């Protein structure tokens, strides 16, 4: 699939991006510099899940390195037999799963926000509340991964049906 095809497929799912953005993300190419620090594109979690749905891989696959794609794809009847998350699944599962994992740790929303801040990303208690209540689940992949790390869980446990 070309980047243009991916862009068109994402657009059909209601997600907006450009093949230029996809190209930068695909190569991990820095797009700006701030002083001596290179800055990389940060994508919204919706785009991550949209790409995983279109390409039929779990979101976690994008966040790990693979030398050989065929070595990590399921064998047998084909990858389409797997129930891959769809962009709308974020609205259904992310907030409740985040709350469940937080409560399993015995943390308050404030403690989770603090744990994310300790990982170098801004997060306030009210933002955790908005995500858990499904009022506003838009987070960047960086913020999402900080939540995954803070809760010592997996990408799929937060995004997929439990």
From TrEMBL:
Gene3D superfamilies the UniProt entry points to: lambda repressor-like DNA-binding domains
InterPro entries, alphabetized: Cro/C1-type_HTH (IPR001387), Lambda_DNA-bd_dom_sf (IPR010982)
Record-linked CDD domains: HTH_XRE
Family annotation (PROSITE patterns): HTH_CROC1 (PS50943)
Source superkingdom: Bacteria
Cited Pfam families: HTH_3
A GO MF term: DNA binding
Domain HTH cro/C1-type: 98-158
Protein name, entry field: Helix-turn-helix domain-containing protein
């Amino acid at each position: 699939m070309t980047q243009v095809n991916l862009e068109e497929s994402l657009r059909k799912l209601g997600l907006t991006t450009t093949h230029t953005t996809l190209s930068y993300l695909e190569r991990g190419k820095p797009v700006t510099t701030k002083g001596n620090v290179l800055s990389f594109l940060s994508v919204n979690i919706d785009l991550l899940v949209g790409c995983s749905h279109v390409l039929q891989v779990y979101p976690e696959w994008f966040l790990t390195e693979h030398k050989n794609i065929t070595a990590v794809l399921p064998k047998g009847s084909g990858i389409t037999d797997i129930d891959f998350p769809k962009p709308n699944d974020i609205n259904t599962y992310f907030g409740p799963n985040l709350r469940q994992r937080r409560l399993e740790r015995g943390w308050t929303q404030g403690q989770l926000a603090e744990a994310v801040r300790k990982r170098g990303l801004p997060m306030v208690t009210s933002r955790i509340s908005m995500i858990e209540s499904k009022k506003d689940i838009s987070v960047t992949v960086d913020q999402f991964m900080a939540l995954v790390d803070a809760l010592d869980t997996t990408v799929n446990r937060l995004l997929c049906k439990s």
